[in-house]
Amino acid sequence: MLQFLKYDPAERASLIKTARGLIPADIVVVNANIVSVTTGEVLENQAVLVKGRRIAGIVDSDKASKYVGSSTLVVDGRGGYVAPGFIDPHIHIESSLLDPYGFSKIALKHGTTTVVADPHEIGNVLGVRGVKLFAEVARKTPLKILIDIPSCVPATSPSMGLETTANEITASDISELAGLENVVGLGEVMDFVSVVNAMPDVLEKIKVAYEKGLVVNGHAPLLKDEWLNAYISAGIFSDHESTEGSEALEKARRGMHVFIRQGSAWRDLPPLVEKLGRVDCEVCAFTSDDLNVADLFEKGHMDRIVNEAIEMGMDPVKAVKYATLRPAMRLHLEEHIGVVAPARLGDFFITSRLEHITPETVIANGEIIYYKGELKKKLEKPSYPDYALKTVNLKAVPQPDDLVPWARVEKGSVKANVIEVKPGSALTKWVQESIEVVGRKPLLAEDELYVAVLERHRGTGSIGKGIMKGLGVRIGGIAQTIAHDTHNIIVAGYNPVDMSLAVRKLAEIQGGIVAVHEGRVLGVVELKLAGLMSIKEPEEVYEEYKSFVGKLKENLDVEFESFFMTLALVALPVIPELRLTDRGLVDVVNARLVPLFPE
Fold it and tell me: What pLDDT does 277 receive?
C-alpha cells in the first residue's frame, strides 16, 4: 500500500488547524495564480498553505499573513503560476539510461513529481529480484516513482519458443510483488496475441491484478474492430500505442484511457491531438513512455509535452490537465495528487509563464526540491549489488563469421526475408528481396546491414542472424545490451569484423552501447546496471551520451537518436511485422519463426 494513502489522524488534525489559522503553515506561497485543473480556470492572486507533506488550504494572497509564523517559509510567487506537479502515467525509466536516482534528480527539475514506472526492462534481465531492487531504490527518491509490475516477462510465452529469455515473472510472482509499498498497477500487457486468444497464463495474471486492486495497463498497437473488443474484454482499459488519430479515437470511444505518447523516438502527439481535439475526450492524458537522457536534459519531461501541445493550439490549462488530473484519475489517486487543493500532497511548481511552462521552484511532498532552478534537497545516491552490475554472460565472444547469415548456395541470387525499419517508428515491414550471394555470403545493398541478436544471460551461445534495411546509418558495427524486451545483445553493421569488436567491447564494460567503424572504437556509453542504466551521476551520463552522439555525427554524419530506439526494438517479437531474436526471424502476427532464406 502506498504510504501516502494511509490516513493519519494526527496529520489531518494538523492540516485542519492550519487551515483554520490556529497554527502556522510550514510553507506559504503568496502572490500566485493557481492553475485549477478541476474547473479549467486560473485563480488569480492566491496563496498556497503547506503543512507537512500536504496542502492545508488555498486563500486570497492578501489574507495569507494569518497563516505565517516565525518558522514559516514564505515563497513569493511574483505573479507567476502555480500548477500541480506533473504525472507521467507510463514510463520505462531504463530508457533514459539513468537509474531511478539520476532520473528523479532531473525529472523533478522539470516539474514532474510522480511517475508510474514499468520496470520490465530490468525485470527481463534480473527477474523478480530486479524489480524489487528497482522498487527499493525508487522509494528513496523525492520523486514518487510508483511501480507497475511487469506483466510480460518475457514479452512472449516461453512455450512459443521464439527467443531465449533470462527470466519469467509468473502470476504467483505478481501476487508477491503486489505487496511492495509503491506498486500501483500491472504493467502493459504486450502479448496481445495471447490475450485475444484467451490464453490461461495471461488471464491469470490479470486476475491476480484485479484481486490485488491494481490498475491493469494495455499495449494494443493497431488493434481494431473485434480484436480491440476482445482485448478490452480481458479487462484492460488503457493504451499508449496509438500512432494515428483514428486509432486513438476508436480506443477512446470504447472506453480505453488513451495515453498520448510523445517520447524521444515515438512522437505521436501531433496526429493524436489533431484528431482527439475535435471531441471532448475525458480519457486522454499525456505520457512519455521512453525518453532518452539528452531529451530529458535539453527539452524536459512532461513540461516538454505540455509545451508542445500548447504550441499546437491546445489551451494551456487543458494541456496541464492532461499531465496532472487526468493521469491521477486513471490511477484513482486524484484525492492525493494531480490538483493544487486542500488535503492533496504538496506537489506543485511555480512557472512565470503559462503559455510556455518553465518550472522554476518545485515542491514535492511538501518540501522544496528546486528553488529558482537550484537543487535544494540532497538526494541519496544508491549502491548496487554485483549481480546487478555483471549481466553480460556470453559463451564466447563471436568471431566475425559467426555474425554473418550464410546462405545455402555458393553463388547466385536468393530470396531473403528482410526486416525493413523506419527510424522513429516502432513498426517494421516484412519484405522479400533478391540478394546476391558470393561464397555463401550475402552481399548488402547500400541501405542494408547485417544484424544479429546474441543471447547474453545464460551463456548458451545462441545467435539469430538476419538482414535489415532502412536504418539510415552506414556503420561498421554498433552493438548494445538494450534490445527490447529480453535485452540480449543486438549488433548491426556492414563489416562483421567491426561488429565482432563492438560485441567484445560490450562484454568488457558489462553493458552499454558501442560503435565501431573501420576497426576503430568511435564511442562508448557504459550502462553497468543490468546492461541498461548508468550508475554515474546524471550529468556525467548526459555528457558521455552527448560525446557518443557527437562522434557518430562527426565521423558518419548520422543522428544516433533517430535510430537508437528503432534498432533496440528490432528484437521485440510482439510488434508487427518481422523481428529478430537469438532464435531467428519472427513472424509476429502468427507468432512463429521463419527462415531468413525461404525455400
Answer: 86
Q: What is the grid cell recorded at 413?
A: 541470387
Distance CA 469, CA 432 (A): 11
Give the full edge-to-edge strand order of the sheet including 428-438: 441-442, 428-438, 411-421, 463-469, 448-454, 489-493, 477-480, 512-517, 520-526
- Residues 238, 212 contacting (CB under 8 angstroms): no
**Cα separation, 35 vs 44, whole angstroms:** 9
Which are the contacts of 438, defined by CB distance < 8 A and separation ≥ 6?
411
CATH topology assigned to domain 84-335: TIM Barrel (3.20.20)
Residue 483 C-alpha cell reads as 534490445
Closest listed residue to residue 565, CA positions, set 19, 24, 95: 95
Mean pLDDT (the chain) is 96
What is 83-117 written as a DSSP string?
EEPEEEEEE-GGGGTB-HHHHHHHHHHTTEEEEEE
Of 589, 573, 264, 566, which Cα lies nearest the Cα of 421?
Answer: 566
Confidence band, pLDDT 50/70/90 cuts, at residue 118: very high
Reported as a single tens digit per residue, the pLDDT across 515-529 is 999 999 999 999 999
Q: What residues does each domain of the chain span? A: 84-335, 387-594
Cα 362 to Cα 158: distance, rounded to the nearest angstrom: 45
What's the pTM value of the predicted model, to 2 decimals? 0.94
For 400-441, write each residue's pLDDT tens digit.
Answer: 999 999 999 999 999 999 999 998 777 899 999 999 999 999
